[in-house]
Amino acid sequence: MNAYIQKVLNQVEKRDANEPEFLQTVEEVMKSLEVVVDKHPEYEKMALLERMVEPERIVEFRVTWADDNGQAHVNRGFRVQFNSAIGPYKGGLRFATHVNLSVMKFLAFEQTFKNSLTSLPIGGGKGGSDFDPNGRSDAEIMRFCQAYMTELQRHIGASIDVPAGDIGVGGREIGYMFGQFKRIRGAYENGVITGKGLSYGGSLIRPEATGFGAIYYLVEVLKHENDDIAGKTVALSGFGNVAWGAATKLAELGAKAVTLSGPDGYIYDPDGVITKEKLDYLLVMRNSGRNVVKDYADKFGVEFFPKEKPWGRKVDVIMPCAMQNEIHMTEAQWIVDNGIKYYMEVSNMPTTNDALAYLMQSGVIVGPSKAVNAGGVATSALEMSQNAGRLSWSEEEVDEKLKTIMINIHKASAEAASEYGLGYDLVSGANIAGFKKVAEAMIAQGLV
């Protein structure tokens, strides 16, 4: 390995030894940049990589709120403002019990390169809390969101940091947080947060955007392989906005999602999640707060596999859409043994590094999450543009812009891989293409 990259990895491992998710993503990205760093010895003199793996700012704060019985609770809030070289920090807020500093840093680091790939002027950030909204009343969620925003509002703004939604943070939570921001600031600054409702500055197709974008990216991969999406069977995990958007676009293009999953297990629907009734039921499931996928099996009379994952299914395409590190070596071996050619990461870092390497070495075409799922943040940036211009674009306009962005992300990744003699390595290509833009901006702006 390049000596400079190894030095930086050693420093990160020493400093952040208790942050496994962050170490994982830094290692994955840095190892793929060796071909670039070899050609730029000036990077070391400017400590470019050391700066790139260190967040510009981390805000950690206490969130105190009361439940419906008057019992006080204390949660931990975060905002990691990782890199603003190409624009204001941009990235979602996640409310889930697994949220900690390592998860926040990993997501913000990934977001930096993902946002760069969109070609839009947005930097990388991420935030959230270890608050679990599942099972909480609307009033409790509102009080928590207001308490969270009371602190966060000090650190965000349309030209500073623009949060959005993520796991556990949908339109309801965004609305409560924006309302609190407006009340504290005394101004209607709707460009400060994205994922808003259509009645107060939100963008059409934002809830579907991550899933739609992932399928647009898949279509480009299939085109490269002289293949077609029509008739393809796809295994999805999750059943939230991302899986719903992906299943919807697959059905529209003549393919079908045959699995969905939740914490309780997965369902297998050989006819596919293709009818309006089935797609609409995903919204009912998500809004129920139960967080179980078995409801789908009960509703439509399909098989349910408790506490199992869908990755042993023989399908044409695998698309994990739920959580980080869903795919370990065992699941990767299932995928290879089943002869599956296409593996598209839709959730952030769903694959452990050893499993990712195994899939690639085995000839599986891997679409990396920072490219495949960039449609969500791209559409958030389009929402920012509409807010800044006091505009409201049609669904067709937003969708066409999203499709163009995803086509260009695939093209940039493939071209970067080809430029450095890496063949059709979309993982390295995406890392290189995202890195080069951020690196150029950081060098141009000096030692800051």
Number of H- or I-type helical stretches: 18
Q: Superfamily at the CATH H level of the domain at 209-370?
A: NAD(P)-binding Rossmann-like Domain
CATH topology of the domain at 209-370: Rossmann fold
Helical fraction equals 40-55%
Supply Rg.
21 Å
Looking at the structure, what is the overall shape?
Answer: globular
Features:
448 residues, 15% strand, Rossmann fold, single chain, alpha/beta, globular, five-stranded mixed β-sheet
Q: What would your notes on this structure say?
A:
The protein has about 450 residues and is an alpha/beta fold. It has 18 helices and twelve strands. It has helices at about 5-15, 20-30, 35, 40-45, 50, 100-115, 140-150, 170-185, 210-225, 240-250, 275-290, 295-300, 330-335, 355-360, 370, 375-390, 395-420, 425-445; strands at about 55-65, 70-85, 90-95, 125-130, 160-165, 235, 255-260, 265-270, 305, 315-320, 340-345, 365. A seven-stranded mixed beta sheet has the order 9-8-7-6-10-11-12, with helices on both faces. Strand 3, helix 6 and strand 4 form a beta-alpha-beta unit.
